[in-house]
Amino acid sequence: MKEWASHFPDPEELERELNDYLKKKYGVRIRVMSPMQMAFKGEEDPSAKKSSGVRKIRFDLKPKDLEDYLNQYVVKQDYAKAVLATKVCTHYNRIKLQRERERFGRQHTVGRIKNNILLVGPTGVGKTYLVKLIAEKLNVPFVKGDATKFSETGYVGGDVEDLVRDVVTAADDDI
Known about the structure:
single chain, mainly alpha, Rossmann fold, 3 domains, 2 strands
């Protein structure tokens, strides 16, 4: 029995070889993920240090700066641009403040600010484009998903896990 098992590669080695093949054939969007291991990270420079995404936030934009940036690309939609710029800046400045407070041993900030936004409008007015522009400006991943194509796991249609996988891929596994 041991002789039979010795002909099989190590699971990590097999996963690595399969991912190399898939990467050459299809690019980085398709990978084999073993249920017992984290996602394959590919070739990384060992000298490069990768910190967690939250710790490396250096945000110094003001809502007016972000709104001015959006004005370069989107005509009209002034209210949407103002709300998005304000909400995004509030979100990142709150994270920055919280990290500073933690560093000095202070308690978390009190209260909660609603950080969800619902953009409503007809097709082609720039809802997705505004969010995509903000993501590019802030150098954060952006993934667009059509919720009508998803179904419960096990049924015909896309799984919600596919959208999560796309987000992790867009973030270069930096979650």
